[in-house]
Amino acid sequence: MDILHLIDRLEELFNESRAIPFTHNVIVDEEKMLDLIDQMRVAIPDEVKKAQQVLTQRDRILAQAQEEANRTLALAREKVDQLTERDSIAQSAQIRAEQIAAQATLEAEQTRRDADNYVIETLTRLEMELERYLNQVRNGIMTLRESQKEPEQT
């Protein structure tokens, strides 16, 4: 039986009791009173058991919620660590890419200077050879002209 119902019945018993004149006392039916007290003694342990079950269930739910919160927090921290690591890796890669690009630019400039120097040297040698050939051609023409002039004078 519900403990609140029993308390209501106890209150009804009190309200139905006869007041003793000039006092705050009442006359209560002893048998009904003792019967209600016995019923309360039986009902109270059940109510306490139910309350204990509710408290146990509440503690279990709170423990599960705490465990879930800890798991969620751990996953969030892990995700933050991954993103931080990924960001760190990306920053390192960006710095390395900039270093590689700068090195490539320096190497390209050096290669262009080397190529320009090679072309200048090659063209200078070619110019010298062409001048030598031109001199040989001029000398050959002069020799032929001089040899042509000599027979005419004879």
Provide keyphrases for this structure.
154 residues; mainly alpha; two-stranded antiparallel sheet
Pattern of helices and strands: HEEH
In total, how many domains does the architecture comprise? 1
Enumerate the strands of the largest sheet in spatial order, edge to edge or round the barrel. Answer: 1-2
Number of helices: 2
- How many strands? 2
Q: Percent of residues in helical segments? A: over 70%
Account of the 3D structure:
There is one protein chain. The protein is mainly α and 154 residues long. The chain has one domain. The chain has two helices and two strands, in the order αββα. A two-stranded antiparallel sheet has the order 1-2. Helix 1 runs antiparallel to helix 2. The mean pLDDT is 88.
Summarize the structure.
With about 150 residues, the protein is an all-alpha fold. It contains 2 helices and 2 strands.
Question: Secondary-structure blueprint of this entry?
Answer:
Elements: H1 3-16, E1 18-19, E2 26-27, H2 30-153
Antiparallel strand pairs: 1-2
Helix pairs in contact: 1-2
